[in-house]
Structure prediction request, 306 residues.
Amino acid sequence: MNQKTGQKPAPQTTGHAWDGDLQEYNNPVPTWWLVSFYISVAAAVIYWFLYPAWPIGGSYTKGFDTITYVNDKGVTKTTHWNTRALLMKETNEAVTAQKPYYTKVADTPFEKITKDPELDSFVVSAGKQLFSDNCAACHQQGGAGKVGFAPNLTDDDWLYGGEFAKIQQTITHGRHGYMPPFAEVLDDKQVSQLADYVLSLSKIAVDPVSAQAGNALFHSETAACYYCHGDNAHGRQEIGSANLTDRIWLWANVPGADTIADKEAAVKNVIRKGLNKGVMPAWQDRLSADQIKLLTVYVHELGGGK
Ligand code: HEC
Ligand code: HEC
Prediction:
C-alpha cells in the first residue's frame, strides 16, 4: 500500500497481453524457496548414487554405499546398502555391546548376579527380550501362563522346582509331564470320588463322604495316585507331578468352571484321560548356555524363585 496516496502500487506484469487486456503478473518465487529447491534436487541426485534407487528391468541400481555385517553363520559380508543388512549390522552392534555383560553373567554365581544392581538390570532388560522372543508364545507376555497350555512362571508354585539349578535344567533339557489315563482302571464312581477328594484338597465344598472314599482310593494300590503325587498330595518335583493342594491348576480348569459339577467334570476329565501334553521344549540347541543362564535368573526373578 502506498502510504501517501493510500493506493496500491501498480503490480509488475510480464508485459504480455492476451485477448487485449489479459495480463500476467510477474511474481518470482522467494530466494529461500529457490535455494532449498536446488538443494533438494542435489540431495536427490546424491541419494541416487549412494542408495538403491532406480528400477531397471527385474533389478535396480544398487548405489555405491555399502554395509559390512556378520551373518548368522559368523561370516563377514559386505553388501550394497539395504535395510536387511542394516538390521544385521545393528544386531551385531547390540550383541557386541551386550557381550561384556554376558561374559560377566557367565562368570558370576547365580546368587551374586541378583545382588549386583548393574548386572541385574541387564538381566531384566535382556531377559525380557529373550523371553518375549522365545517363551512368551506359550508362557504369555510377562510369564503369567495359561490354564491348559503352559504354567504360570510368576507365582512361587513350581512343578519342577524353583531353585536356580532346577530352572536351568528345565530350560536346558526341557520337561515332559506324564500322567497315565485311568479310564480303564477305575469306574465312574471311583473317578468321581477321586475328583471330590482332589477338590476337597483345595477347600472346595464337595460331598464329604465321596471325598473320604476318594482319599482312601488315592492312597490305595488300585489308583496309586499317591505314588506320583505323594502321600500328602504335594506332588514330586522329580517328575513334575502337580501339587494338588495349592489351589493352582494347570490342566484341570477348576477356576474357569462355575459350578461344583463343572469343577468335578474338569478333574474327572484329567483322571480319565491322563496327561501327556505338558511339553516344555529343550533350549540347549537353540540358545547359548549364557542365554539360558540369563533366562534362568530372569525367570527366577519373575516372581517366585526359591
Ligand atoms: C511350546 C510351548 C513352550 C515354550 C515355547 C516354552 N515353554 Fe516353558 N513350559 C511349557 C510347558 C507346557 C511347561 C509345563 C511342562 C509340564 O507340565 O510338564 C513348561 C514349563 C516350564 C518351566 C517349569 C515351571 C515349573 O513350574 O517348574 C519353566 C521354568 C519354563 N517352562 C521356562 C520356559 C522358558 C524360559 C522358555 C523360553 C526359553 C519356555 N519355557 C518356553 C511350554 C513352553
Ligand atoms: C505316573 C505318575 C502319576 C500318577 C500315577 C498320577 N498322576 Fe496325576 N499327574 C502326574 C503328573 C506328572 C501331572 C502333571 C502333568 C503335567 O504338568 O504335564 C499330574 C497332574 C494331575 C492333575 C492336574 C493338576 C492341575 O494342575 O491341573 C490332577 C487333578 C491329577 N494329576 C490327579 C491325579 C489322580 C487323582 C491320580 C490317581 C488316580 C493321579 N493323578 C495319578 C502324574 C501322575
